[in-house]
Structures are given as structure tokens and as C-alpha cells.
UniProtKB/TrEMBL annotation:
<dbReference type="GO" id="GO:0055052">
    <property type="term" value="C:ATP-binding cassette (ABC) transporter complex, substrate-binding subunit-containing"/>
</dbReference>
<dbReference type="GO" id="GO:0005524">
    <property type="term" value="F:ATP binding"/>
</dbReference>
<keyword id="KW-0378">Hydrolase</keyword>
<protein>
    <submittedName>
        <fullName>Multiple sugar transport system ATP-binding protein</fullName>
        <ecNumber>3.6.3.-</ecNumber>
    </submittedName>
</protein>
<dbReference type="GO" id="GO:0016887">
    <property type="term" value="F:ATP hydrolysis activity"/>
</dbReference>
<keyword id="KW-0547">Nucleotide-binding</keyword>
<feature type="domain" description="ABC transporter">
    <location>
        <begin position="4"/>
        <end position="234"/>
    </location>
</feature>
<dbReference type="GO" id="GO:0015423">
    <property type="term" value="F:ABC-type maltose transporter activity"/>
</dbReference>
<keyword id="KW-0813">Transport</keyword>
<keyword id="KW-0762">Sugar transport</keyword>
<dbReference type="GO" id="GO:1990060">
    <property type="term" value="C:maltose transport complex"/>
</dbReference>
<keyword id="KW-0067">ATP-binding</keyword>
<comment type="similarity">
    <text>Belongs to the ABC transporter superfamily.</text>
</comment>
Amino acid sequence: MAELALKDVRKSFGKVEVIKGVDLQINDGEFVVFVGPSGCGKSTLLRMIAGLEDITDGTLEIGGARVNDLQPKERGIAMVFQTYAIFPHMSVRENVAFGLTIAGVPKAEKEEAVQRAARILQMEHLLDRRPSQLSGGQRQRVAIGRAIVRNPSVFLFDEPLSNLDAALRMDMRMEIGKLHNQLGATMIYVTHDQVEAMTLADRIVVLKDGEVQQVGSPMELYHEPANLFVAGFIGSPS
Ligand code: ADP
Ligand code: MG
């Protein structure tokens, strides 16, 4: 059974349809990357999966159950954004624990979850710092830590590295790959960086104007692009 299934999923803002019938199955533990030009609907798709945006039409299933009407926190999904969305007045520990604090998770259990996330991300030594005392990469790690503590079955990343410089982006890219291997969770990752897409993805979904152009492994897309648009985007010669 697919961990995630989108069936003719559509989204309109007013009279404008921006997601035009997306069909997609994502397997348990798979790393799927969404690519496509700015405005093609990548963030809107992620936000619908997360429950931050209503689905205008179609069905979203997680683990075989329809979740269109579930609240974000009922979906077992955590989302990591491009902007870090961490609170400057809180320590790293408090930031990472934030979602659990809101959910009323008992202190001991919360601390255990924070320690586990910190260990996975190798940031135990940063837990008592304030965000102002962190580098860009460390802040992004806090944002990822915040997702990990909730132990989601699905992680969504919306261009999480686009605010980082090139060297740091490469480091974090490798960390995210490691994280995926370690956790075995399903991950959906939006980027417009070809290298990120080609190195991280089990499968890449190429989007244009709210429609899927092609779904395939990096090698399939590279060697057998469905059309010129995909070829141009993936950077293959044909
Ligand atoms: P991407 O993430 O691929 O750059 P988005 O999903 O942000 O694209 O946007 C897809 C389209 O939907 C764009 O045309 C954008 O202007 C439009 N859009 C996104 N959010 C809204 C909104 N809240 N209201 C109206 N239009 C929106
Ligand atoms: Mg976007």
C-alpha cells in the first residue's frame, strides 16, 4: 500500500486553478523530490498534503485512509520550511520541543524526544544556546529537529536549504540524505536545485503549471525525459 496517494488532486484560488489534477503514489520510506519553475504549484501541493491548505477537489490518502478533512496535527506529518520559523527568545531546547509543549507532552518524555533529535542531528552541545548564537546551518538543524521530535511518518521539506550558502547547502544536503537513511521515513522535498534533486531523490516529480510532466528516478528522467521541458529542467542533452 502506498504511504501517500494523491488522486486527481486539484486546487483553485478563486477562479484560478493552480493544481490541475495530480495523481501520485508515494511509497513508505521513499524520498520524492518535487521540481519545477517558480509558481508551478510545488508549495501549494506540499501545503495541501500537510493540511495547511484545503484540497479543492480530489483525494489525499495517507496509509490508505482519506485524510482530506483531518487537521494538520492529525496527519502524522511534519513540515520544514525555507524560513527557519524559530523563536529568538527561546533556547534551542525550547525551540525543538515547541510542538510537544503545545501538545502538552509531559516533561520527561519531551526531554527524551529532544535528546534523541539532538543526537540524530549532532547538536547536543547547542541545546542551551539562543538562535542568535547559531550559524545558518545550525538554525536549519533546529528547524529539522523540531520536525523529528514529533516522530512523523512523513516529512515535508519546502526548499529548506535555499537560504544557505553553497558550501553549507552541500553539507546539509548530505545530512538530509543521512537523516532519511537513519529514520526510514517518507520524505517529500521541494527544490529547484538540480543537484539536490538528482542526489537525494528515489524519484523526481517534474511539475509545470500545476500538472505533473513526468515521474521517475533521476536516471530515468535524465536518459528518457518525457518532453523538452523535462529535458531542459533536468539538464540532459536531448
Ligand atoms: P511554487 O511553490 O512552485 O513556486 P506555489 O505553490 O507557491 O508555487 O504557487 C502556485 C500558484 O498559486 C502561483 O501562481 C501562486 O501565485 C498561486 N498561489 C499560491 N498561494 C496562493 C494564495 N494563497 N492565493 C492566491 N494564489 C496563490
Ligand atoms: Mg514554493
